[in-house]
Fold Pyridoxal phosphate homeostasis protein.
Amino acid sequence: MTSSDTQPASSQTAEAMMKPSQARTTHLLSALSSVNSRISHTTTTHSIRKPIRLVAVSKLKPLSDIIALASPPPAAAALNKPPEDDPPKPQLHFGENYVQELLEKSRLLPSDLQAKIRWHFIGGLQSNKAQTLAREVRGLWAVESVDSVKKANLLDKGRGERIDSRTSKDQEEGGGGSGGTDEDGQLNVFVQVNTSGEESKSGVEPNSPALLELCRHIWDQCRHLKLRGLMTIGAIARSQATTAETENEDFQCLKDTRDWVARELGLGEGQQLELSMGMSEDFEAAIRMGSDEVRVGSTIFGQRPPKAEARVLPDKEDDGNK
């Protein structure tokens, strides 16, 4: 997915291509508002008092979609609401699946958003791209698909290189070498657990020695990483079978596995590991079962184009509606 499959765009042209249309902005903000309302209804109905982090999965969608949600116009202009209504709140957590696409989006973001947006890498992570991911992506808040000690070490090394680079830049500019901003501190990581046992899915086996070894390694040995929690992508069939009266086996498995890891690591109060589980089809069920973070894509952005047809900067007539 590239922004320059033909001729490189000028800065003015690129800026114009990143600007979302009012129609697309209205559609996206309405969809986002609906998801947030469903999250709020679920937490209220089930007396859940902790905040739920919503990651908007923007993979294969143009940068203009991200800008529309991250810097929404006033409510009256965007959604044709009365002027006294509160403006839409910016959506700042976004999920991406492909390293090259994430690199390009993070570099092309307008400067006022580069320090605000918090990127989550949620796709399958290749070892040969892990170090680059952690070193080069500004605003990388979390990597949620860590499944080996090797990948954890490469992420730790890449994050360390980024911190060192930012510290050197601060010193050169007379900033005193403070070590960079918050987004250049420890990188949050989630260990991916294959709760469904499907061969097509990545992840470590739940409640396994390999899982505990990986979590302990990140906790004890990777000083540039923070073990934030566990993540799973459950089986589609189980998600479709889940109702308000039934529990999703994958979610229960991840919850039980998280509790086991926390006990084995001897984590105390205030060191609780998070659960990242639940997507468009089942995020409400995931919240009911204790998820701290849900990853919602198509319900907000609509159907994705084939990867070969996706563009970071869409054609002028496209507007990102595909």
In short: Residues 136 and 162 are 7 Å apart (CA to CA). The first helix runs from residue 11 to 18. The longest strand covers residues 140-146.
